[in-house]
Design goal:
The complex is a heterodimer of chains A (302) and B (128).
Chain A: H1 3-15, H2 21-25, H3 46-51, H4 53-81, H5 97-110, H6 115-123, H7 125-145, H8 167-189, H9 198-216, H10 218-224, H11 227-245, H12 247-251, H13 274-298
Chain B: H1 11-29, H2 33-55, H3 79-109, H4 114-121
Classes of the chains: A mainly alpha (302), B mainly alpha (128).
Chain lengths: 302, 128
């Protein structure tokens, strides 16, 4: 991808010549199946539905009841806000001994400079394990729901945009993908030192993978990141997380001393298990985001 | 019924409640399933704003220890930040689940309107 090619593409796009595949890539654009219109299932007209007496009565009742319900809930919440402690003050009930403990002892006990990372991955690591399993369960459910139904053939939508042949998306995206991957890895590995961590870094890496699948085609993406790769990565990450945090079951919950010490706070290799746990969570999040994209686009993983 | 005196001072919590209300009314008054999901996401953002504003304290820094100062009077509360993280993850999972259910419904009934789905599923939408 050099500047000359980008210039040629932009110029051709400006002239309005849409299909430049052959002169840019050397191979003709693959023949696409003609778009089939939707199956002639009975498509109801909204006016007819409203005219139905039973449904019309139900809609009136529904509108009145939901308006009353909304007004009650919103009024109660606004009324409660007027009695809450003033915004930004330091003597609210939430600023208690837990906050003092996390801020004052957190760095010495966990080794993490970022107190939030020390909190969610050391003091409350089981909570984050549950969050990872929520993502895993959502992935499984979406896989089950989006599985191809042989009775309902997937039709290509007539307004479907194929970004593989879009000159702007293709050139900008191929410049952006390495930057996004490096930035996501930086957020992952600096989670205990700076804002960030497993969830945000994993989301950035997942968006890079989605962009790759969008501009190079799902066939090529699923060849690199196949179903088996995703399953292995997610299983290893979740299994490592569960094993590394379940030692407290065996040692007794009152003697929570990690084998790996906290290290020197501020170094990249410090804070005990927080760095590997961040990487594990990031792998799960990136795979989940990518799986959602591929499933909603194709209906299957490989 | 008397209102408390902190109504205008708590403007950020007020904005969060109004955002929640916009999402809630969108969820209740729209018949389109995609618009209902959008309303649910707006509700989620209202909850995040509420939690983040609960943790904020004036003239303090983000809870990342700088220069080795571990004084509780210097940093804001880190606990609501962790709760927002939990909320975002659950919201992403729930949104993906709802969207995939919507895709299945659309494949079967070719419509996103809840009333039409109800009529079709009860075999009442045939001939007028």
């Amino acid at each position: 991808m050099n500047m000359k090619m980008i210039k040629a593409r932009l110029a051709a796009w400006w002239r309005g010549e849409e299909d430049l595949t052959e002169e840019l890539y050397g191979s003709p654009r693959p023949e696409e199946a003609p778009a089939v219109p939707d199956t002639p299932l009975p498509r109801l007209h909204s006016t007819f539905v409203i005219a139905h007496t039973e449904l019309r009565a139900f809609r009136w009742l529904y509108a009145v009841l939901s308006a009353v319900f909304c007004l009650i809930i919103i009024g109660t919440m606004l009324y409660a806000v007027t009695y809450m402690p003033p915004y930004g003050s330091a003597d609210t009930p939430t600023i208690n001994e837990v906050f003092d403990r996390y801020v004052e002892q957190g760095m010495a006990e966990t080794g993490a400079v970022n107190t939030v990372a020390g909190m969610i991955l050391d003091y409350r690591a089981f909570d984050t394990l549950g969050e990872s399993f929520v993502l895993f369960t959502a992935t499984c459910t979406v896989i089950i729901l989006m599985k191809d139904d042989p009775d309902l053939k997937k039709k290509k939508h007539p307004y479907f945009v194929d970004y593989r042949y879009d000159p702007i998306v293709h050139s900008i995206g191929s410049l952006l993908i390495p930057v996004l991957l490096v930035f996501g890895a930086y957020i992952l590995f600096n989670g205990h030192l700076s804002p960030g961590g497993g969830f945000s870094g994993g989301a950035v890496i997942g968006s890079a993978l989605m962009l790759y699948a969008m501009i190079f085609g799902e066939e090529r993406a699923t060849r690199v990141i196949s179903e088996r790769v995703i399953q292995t990565v997610v299983l290893c990450a979740l299994g490592f997380y569960a094993l590394s945090k379940s030692y407290s079951f065996f040692t007794g919950a009152n003697h929570l001393t990690s084998i790996i010490g906290p290290g020197t706070p501020g170094n990249i290799f410090s804070a005990g298990l927080i760095l590997p746990l961040n990487v594990a969570v990031g792998c799960v999040v990136a795979c989940t985001m990518y799986t959602f994209y591929i499933l909603f686009k194709r209906g299957r993983l490989s | 019924m008397r209102f408390g005196e902190n109504g205008l001072i708590n403007f950020e919590e007020m904005a969060a409640i109004i955002l929640f209300a916009i999402g809630f009314t969108t969820l209740l008054f729209n018949r389109n399933l995609i618009k209902k999901i959008i309303g649910m996401n707006i509700m989620d953002t209202g909850v995040y704003l509420f939690l983040a504003s609960m943790g904020f304290i004036f003239d303090r820094e983000a809870p990342i220890i700088t220069d080795g100062v571990t004084d509780a009077d210097r940093y804001i509360n880190p606990i609501p930040s962790g709760l927002v993280l939990t909320g975002i993850v659950v919201s992403v999972s729930v949104t993906a689940l709802m969207l995939s259910l919507t895709v299945r419904l659309y494949e079967k009934y070719r419509t996103l309107n809840l009333d039409e789905i109800y009529m079709l599923s009860h075999n009442r939408g045939g001939k007028p």
